[in-house]
Specification:
Layout: H1 2-10, E1 19-22, E2 29-33, E3 47-50, H2 54-57, E4 62-63, E5 68-70, H3 72-77, E6 82-83, E7 88-91, E8 93-94, E9 103-106, E10 112-114, E11 118-123, H4 127-133, H5 137-143, E12 153-154, H6 157-162, E13 164-167, H7 170-188, H8 194-200
Helix pairs in contact: 1-7
Length: 201
């Protein structure tokens, strides 16, 4: 609860002091949709890839390695799309509206293939700053109205592009990221944080 509270607080800025722009503004970033592949295509080695389902179960605010891979032949024949280092992978479909729009900053050296239920977001902002922002209530409240619901809920790039993001100076983005990273480690790390302490007790 504290982590969520501080994340909201740190990522909320006075509109008179900090510029706020739509995420689709060319000065901020651009979205690219992934291409379709199926779960049975996934392998244990090959080209790094993120399947949209793993965005809910496996990935946090950033990643530099993947859980799954695809064959190089498949990637080439289907002309699949990749997110590059510094892009943010944003999940665009899911069973619950709450989960849609969550972002993971991709920090791996090589590109990562993304599923068609995800977008890669190339941005001039700190990618972790964007990933943390996509997990806030203020972001979610904005995109909620653009999510179409059915058996599977989904959002398109037009809906994501409209979301307004605050743009503090880069050094301020870095300061916020370093605070939230500490919180993230504290709440999720099995080796350093609270889960380790609970385990020890």
């Amino acid at each position: 609860s504290q982590y969520t509270y501080y994340r909201e607080k740190l990522l909320t800025f006075d509109e008179n002091q900090v510029q706020h722009l739509p995420m689709g503004d060319e000065r901020v970033g651009e979205f690219q949709r992934g291409k379709r592949f199926v779960k049975t295509d996934l392998m244990t080695e090959g080209v790094p890839t993120i399947h949209y389902g793993e965005m809910y179960t496996h990935y946090g605010t950033w990643a530099d390695t993947t859980k799954s891979f695809l064959s190089e032949t498949l990637v080439k024949s289907k002309n699949l799309r990749t997110a590059q280092k510094g892009d943010v992978v944003i999940v665009a479909a899911g069973e619950t509206i709450e989960d849609i729009g969550k972002g993971t900053a991709w920090l791996g050296e090589e590109g990562v293939v993304i599923h068609d239920a995800c977008f890669s977001y190339k941005t001039t902002l700190n990618p972790k700053f964007v990933a943390y922002f996509t997990r806030t209530k203020q972001f979610h409240d904005q995109i909620k109205k653009h999510i179409s619901s059915g058996k599977i809920s989904a959002i398109n790039s037009k809906g994501l592009e409209k979301a307004i993001i605050p743009i503090p100076p880069l050094e301020e983005q870095e300061r916020i990221v370093s605070i939230l990273d500490k919180f993230d480690t504290l709440t999720t790390s099995i080796t350093e944080g609270l889960p380790k302490e609970i385990e020890l007790r």
